[in-house]
Amino acid sequence: MFQIKNIGSLPRGQRNTICDVPGVKVGHVTLADGECQTGVTAITTHDGNAFELRTRAAAHVFNGFGKSVGLVQVEELGELETPILLTNTLSVGAVSEGLIEHTLAQTPDIDLMKATINPVVFECNDAFLNKISALKVRPHHVQTALGAVSQDFEQGAVGAGRGMSCFGLKGGIGSASRRLELGNAAYYLGAVVLSNMGRLPDFTLAGQHVGPQIEAKLETDESGPEKGSIIIILGTDMPLSERQLNRVARRACVGLARTGSFLGHGSGDIALAFTTADPVDTKSRKRTHSVEQIDERRIDRVFRAAAEATEEAIINSMLNAEQVTGRDGNTRFALREFGE
């Protein structure tokens, strides 16, 4: 198996996942049965009511070949009012419905307020391994995934990542984190990715261009166009404004490029960054609010952390995945099968 000692220069968090950020949790529902290879992954930013205590966030679309839900309002208001859900492309509607049902159950007075809900759901296309048209993901799977959220969660071919492919191998859910010091305070920045992109000839592992040698072992030709997608979720407890979060989200592309992806025409590549600092209390009656943010002369380390955590999370999504055979006998081999 490949041994990855260091990616970048910043120290990892204790868990080396996004859950090093206090309050953040991740949970999955995995559907793995023959031609059904798919699932749902949920990310929560705190244990409270997400609609009432909103998390500051920003998103950036690198290449818009995707069908995500909720990005327009996040861009406009700079906040999340639901957990973040990941799934396959044709299940976005079912997962959105489930997330709306979850929010209504938590906050029944939404109906009395004549308010609406902005579910945030991201997707990648897992149709190579999963019979995506069977629509096996249903709204109730959202509640199950949310009920399973924990600081300790599985990576690899689980949840929304069950049917995903990455650089012609098995992809899926991956995570990593970095520890940041600002004065006497320590903060964390973590990434969760849903990896489903890249061409095997381009694959670069911690600076080593290993794709061609793996391709030779497989005796296949993976030189076609880059298709697929990646969703990158970055979370931190560092105080950042919504504008700064957008800048951080854009740096995820650096980590993505280091693995060999060039964001091809058919790839949907999106990053969302959030901070658990300074949540928006919708029940507050204050007329003005003060928001703390990092001095931008010190933000370079945050950018570096976003790049490093993204790169390592992609690699972890592959190293933690096992070989999967799904629809029509299609198979994706695991990266760890080619380790030295």
TrEMBL record:
Indicate the family of this protein.
Answer: Belongs to the peptidase S58 family.
Q: Which PANTHER family match?
A: BLR5678 PROTEIN, D-AMINOPEPTIDASE
List the InterPro entries: ArgJ-like_dom_sf, Peptidase_S58_DmpA
A GO molecular function held by the record: aminopeptidase activity
What Pfam families does the entry give?
A: Peptidase_S58 (PF03576)
What's the superkingdom here?
A: Bacteria
Q: What is this protein called?
A: Peptidase family S58
